[in-house]
């Protein structure tokens, strides 16, 4: 797909709470594409890695963290990244831990999601159009990208531990299930315990509809979850507060920047090389219901923005 920017920006990074910029990058320019679903959360920073390779960085809640989780314009965010030519998205998120072994400061790579959003977030590019599509979402993250990330993120966490005296350092937890709640209030103790009983391992307010929209846009999407707290399930401990989250947010963000600075070059190369990290390309081919006479031309035009190969 020819990108709107004309640049070869294949990798997009979405920063969550505490992560409003990346390290070791030279800002090339800011772009703020108006998509058929409005403007992204903030202007997108197109940044050059030391090799000159460019990546796109978007702050999910805006640079000044002014957008609440339920109000994040996820359709515009994903559509804007796609319009720049992005094919794989690395998203970061601050999460609560629902498991004793996932300590604040640890990192997790989820492979499953439980949806506890309340239907107030627009969750499909097809919503409100005359085109019906049912994307496959059994594996909500791009598994090849997740597996690719495992070894690389683990290595960075080991480097972090070595640089800070060789102690245990943050652990990486793989194959975890993330609960996405509506918020903005945190969970009750009863809810937190229920999520554990359901098999949830970590919890946030942001992975949906972001992951669904990435799938609809045929972008490979993975989430690096960074634990900040133990949510509200521990019977004899205080339940989570924003103050508790803030305690680990900066350290987690700084390690997240180290992860990004270490892997982005290689990730760009892997995406460019072909199908290793672009497994979602073509995945919507059989998800869109066959064209009928009732499909409105204006809707096809809108959908062309994210899926040009099906709506030319
Ligand atoms: C600041 S606590 C709750 C807030 O933090 C997470 O944001 P993000 O996923 O963007 O890092 C969580 O999802 C909530 O939105
Ligand atoms: N306990 C929690 N619940 C939901 N989102 C979070 N983000 C960070 N901690 C969280």
From TrEMBL:
Q: Which SUPFAM superfamilies match?
A: Purine and uridine phosphorylases (SSF53167)
Q: Name one Pfam family in it.
A: PNP_UDP_1
Pathways per UniProt: Amino-acid biosynthesis; L-methionine biosynthesis via salvage pathway; S-methyl-5-thio-alpha-D-ribose 1-phosphate from S-methyl-5'-thioadenosine (phosphorylase route): step 1/1
Query: According to its UniProt record, where is this protein located?
Result: Cytoplasm; Nucleus
UniProt binding sites for phosphate: 17, 60-61, 93-94, 206
Reactions that this protein is recorded to catalyse:
S-methyl-5'-thioadenosine + phosphate = 5-(methylsulfanyl)-alpha-D-ribose 1-phosphate + adenine
GO terms, molecular function: S-methyl-5-thioadenosine phosphorylase activity
Q: By what name is this protein known?
A: S-methyl-5'-thioadenosine phosphorylase
EC number(s) reported in the record: 2.4.2.28
Q: What does this protein do?
A: Catalyzes the reversible phosphorylation of S-methyl-5'-thioadenosine (MTA) to adenine and 5-methylthioribose-1-phosphate. Involved in the breakdown of MTA, a major by-product of polyamine biosynthesis. Responsible for the first step in the methionine salvage pathway after MTA has been generated from S-adenosylmethionine. Has broad substrate specificity with 6-aminopurine nucleosides as preferred substrates.
Picking any one GO biological process from the record gives: L-methionine salvage from methylthioadenosine
- Report the sequence similarity comment from the record: Belongs to the PNP/MTAP phosphorylase family. MTAP subfamily.
Lineage in the entry? Answer: Eukaryota, Fungi, Dikarya, Basidiomycota, Agaricomycotina
- The Nucleoside phosphorylase domain is annotated at 11-263
Alphabetical keyword list: Cytoplasm, Glycosyltransferase, Nucleus, Purine salvage, Transferase
Description of how the protein assembles with itself and partners: Homotrimer.
Q: What is its main location?
A: cytoplasm
Q: Where along the sequence does the record put site: Important for substrate specificity? A: 187, 242
One GO cellular component assignment for this chain's record is:
cytosol
> Which organism is this entry from?
Sparassis crispa
Residues the entry annotates as binding substrate: 205, 229-231
């Amino acid at each position: 797909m020819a990108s709107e920017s004309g640049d070869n920006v294949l990798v997009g990074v979405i920063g969550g709470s505490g992560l409003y910029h990346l390290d070791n990058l030279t800002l090339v320019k800011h772009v703020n594409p108006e998509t058929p679903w409005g403007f992204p959360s903030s202007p997108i920073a197109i940044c050059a890695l030391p090799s000159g390779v460019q990546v796109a960085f978007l702050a999910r809640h805006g640079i000044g963290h002014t957008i609440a989780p339920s109000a994040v314009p996820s359709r515009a965010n994903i559509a804007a990244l796609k319009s720049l030519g992005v094919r794989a998205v690395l998203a970061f998120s601050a999460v609560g831990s629902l498991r004793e072994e996932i300590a604040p400061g640890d990192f997790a790579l989820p492979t499953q999601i439980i949806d506890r959003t309340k239907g107030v977030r627009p969750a499909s590019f097809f919503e409100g159009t005359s085109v019906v599509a049912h994307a496959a979402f059994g594996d909500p993250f791009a598994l090849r990208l997740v597996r690719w990330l495992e070894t690389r993120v683990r290595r960075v966490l080991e480097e972090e531990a070595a640089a800070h005296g060789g102690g245990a350092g943050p652990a990486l937890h793989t194959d975890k299930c993330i609960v996405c709640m509506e918020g903005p209030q945190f969970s009750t103790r009863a809810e937190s315990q229920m999520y554990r009983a359901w098999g949830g391992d970590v919890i946030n307010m942001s992975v949906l509809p972001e992951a669904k929209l990435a799938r609809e846009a045929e972008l490979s999407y993975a989430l690096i979850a960074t634990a900040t707290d133990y949510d509200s399930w521990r019977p004899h401990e205080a339940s989570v507060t924003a103050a508790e989250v803030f305690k680990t947010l900066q350290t987690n963000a700084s390690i997240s920047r180290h992860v990004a600075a270490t892997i982005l070059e290689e990730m760009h190369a892997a995406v460019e090389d072909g199908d290793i990290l672009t497994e979602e390309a073509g995945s919507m081919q059989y998800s869109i219901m066959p064209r009928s006479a009732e499909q409105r031309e204006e809707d096809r035009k809108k959908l062309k923005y994210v899926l040009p190969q099906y709506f030319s």
